[in-house]
Amino acid sequence: MSSLTEKDRPIVQLLLSTGTCPRCILRFCCVGSQTVYRHPYQELMKDLKEFLKNNQEKEDTVCFDVVDPPCKRIRLEGAEEPGDVNHNGTVQQIPSVSDENAAIENSAAKVCNVCLGILQEFCEADFVKKVCQKVTTSDYQFTSFVFSVSLPPQLSVREHAAWLLVKQKMGKLGLALAKDDIVQLKEAYKWIIHPQLSEELGVPADGKVLFEVSVVFAHPETDEECHFLATACPHCFKPAKNKQSVFTRMAVIKALEKIKEEDFLKHFPCPPSSPKNLCAALEIQCNNGAVFVAGRYNKYSRNLPQTPWIIDGERKLESSVEELISEHLMGAFKADSFNFSSSGREDVDVRTLGNGRPFAVELVNPRRIHFTAREVKGLQQAINDSSDKIKVRDLQLVTREAIGRMKEGEEEKTKTYSALIWTDRAIQREDIAFLDDIKELKLEQKTPLRVLHRRPLAVRPRVIHTMKSEYLDQHHFRLRLKTQAGTYIKEFVHGDFGRTKPNIGSLLNRTADILELDVESVDVDWPPAL
Predict the structure, then answer these.
(1) Helix axes 321-333, 373-386, angle to 10 degrees
(2) How many CB atoms lie within 10 A of CB 508?
């Protein structure tokens, strides 16, 4: 049974007379029953007025006929009693009983001076239907949702002022009200809105799911109310690249924790004034958590980059591995954007053969998220039918955490290559046979000149595990290499002007260059073969 008691009477009378809505009054009375807040607004107003008419000397209760968790408590501690002060530095005079009664009669139609209407109009069925209409027309797949709300930062300032007012009143009665005991506005709003959204959408609310429905509120009329805090606590308000204003909710809360009561009261009215207008719902947004698709790709073209090749704003080649794969996934999942990653990368003129290179695509804010294994297989086939430059295998849905296994292989696993090599001076079979006997050859590779514009200058130790040569003619041979991941093969062949030591040229004591390079295997056991 959730109820208000006699000790709540001063809070109810004070806040109702200063323009605070019934649900905010319940918050300041530390009522923790969720169901109470869901009662119709007019019914709550009527109940509070009836409660105030009760003149019994002993503890009286107004019951809301619910069974819920126990209320948050008002701590019966000795409280410091602030002096009676006004807007020039103090709390305004608390209204007399006759003034309060007159104000209470006129309070029902006002915009709440604490929540600015959030717990009034925006809890009604019309607004809930507006939110659900946005969700429905956005065409998302979901089986549950999480609801989030963004509130104007000045609400924290108004709540602080109301708390100081109540704190003074309670102090005179020998009681204390800790700010942490007040039910948070966001919490109360979600208690009210969750059941309505669930009923309208036909799915449960679940704080752990990826589909988010969010509402952003604003109140331009009071936007500047928190600006005085920047003068009082300048260190709390620091510009951030991704924030349009320094007056974020967290910055305001931090400043309110630091500012002295007397300094706050010099700048802000207590109780807060009643606004003329309600808050506005600036945005109603839907967002699905990212979905991850993984597989392995083969690249058969020597004129196809892994990612779009753009130099100085000019596109060099018309397509890329990333785009050939992701454009089909984007269409099927109806996503806003994507992020492509892979276990290493090959140059534009290098083929990837064998069982392919592991890759993953993060699909951002997808509308469709449920696919059967058969549908995923059909998607793989569509990718493969669209181009003869690439092929995809083992396409599957994976978790974000699983992608870490792919990244682990970039530096730790081995890779196998096949290189077609040219030499300036003629060679015989016996000239290259010794390469087959070299095992665990240690290299020192300075960052290659060709990638120096995008990689830091460093000397990287790398290992050539094994080599197998195949003589072709006096100036050509094929070399198969198993290497540590991250080894620059082209530079190992021609030496990169001495930046890779040793190299094939130095080992053969002649000039060598690479004509063709193929990746034959990337030894990362991920994703699982299908």
Answers:
(1) 140
(2) 18
Helix segments in 177-304, DSSP class H: 185-201, 228-232, 249-258, 261-267
Please give the positions annotated as active site: 347
Asked if 163 and 230 touch (Cβ cutoff 8 Å), the reply is no
Q: What is the pLDDT of residues 15-32, one digit of tens each?
A: 999 999 999 999 999 999
Q: Tell me the per-residue pLDDT of 367-401, one tens digit each, with 9 for 90 and over.
A: 999 999 999 999 999 999 999 999 999 999 999 99
Per-domain boundaries in the chain:
6-56+111-225+268-287, 289-410, 415-522
- Nearest Cα to Cα of residue 156 among 90, 253, 235: 253
pLDDT digit string (tens) for 424-448? 999 999 999 999 999 999 999 999 9
d(Cα 190, Cα 422) in Å, to the nearest integer? 71
CA distance 299 to 328: 17
Fold of 289-410: Alpha-Beta Plaits (3.30.70)
The CA dihedral of 81, 86, 88, 90, to the nearest 10 degrees, is 10
Tally of CA atoms within 13 A in the half-sphere of 373 that contains its CB: 2
Query: Counting Cβ atoms within 10 Å, is residue 205 exposed (0-12), middle (13-18) or buried (19+)?
Result: middle
Contact 389, 351 (CB under 8 A): no
Domains 289-410 and 415-522 share a fold: yes
Task: Please tell me the CATH code under which domain 415-522 is placed.
Answer: 3.30.70.3190
What is the per-residue pLDDT for 421?
A: 98
